[in-house]
Amino acid sequence: MADGEPEVMFKKETVGKLLSMFFKDEKTRVGGDAVILMTEMLTIFVREAARRAAKQAHTEHSDAVDIENFEKILPQLLLDF
Q1: Up-side HSE of residue 44: CA atoms within 13 Å toward CB?
Q2: Which of the residue ranges 29-33, 45-49, 53-57 has the most confident prediction, judged by mean pLDDT?
Q3: What totals of helices (H) and strands (E) does the chain contain, helices first?
Q4: How far apart are CA 36 and CA 1, in angstroms?
Q5: CA angle 51-55-57, nearest 5°?
Q6: pLDDT value at 1 more than 60
Q7: Domain at 12-80, CATH from 1.20.1260.10, 1.10.10.10, 1.10.443.10, 1.10.20.10
């Protein structure tokens, strides 16, 4: 983890439940490796969103990141991922 970068953590149970919400068949199960992979992907996504929102705030000469900064970078995130 980079200096000064807050740790991003997700509970594996929560990620597993989020994944299973999108299954059409209730009998479909999520494997442990899939949960670990998705957890890592979510972590990367959240860190990138925070980094871009902070850069946007800096560009606007703001000392704090707010929801407007995040809303401005959201289209970038959706296109990149």
Answers
A1: 8
A2: 53-57
A3: 3, 0
A4: 18
A5: 115
A6: no
A7: 1.10.20.10
What pTM value is reported for the model?
Answer: 0.76
Find, among 42, 72, 35, 78, the residue nearest to 55 by Cα. Answer: 72
Pairwise CA distance, residues 10 & 44, whole Å:
11
Is residue 3 over pLDDT 70? no
pLDDT of residue 8: 74
Burial letters for 45-65: b for 16+ Cβ neighbours within 10 Å, e otherwise? eebebbebbbebbeeeeeeeb
Residue 57, both tokens: 């705030």
Tell me if 46 sits within 8 A of 29, measured CB to CB.
no
Residues 4 and 73: their CA atoms lie apart, in Å, by 22
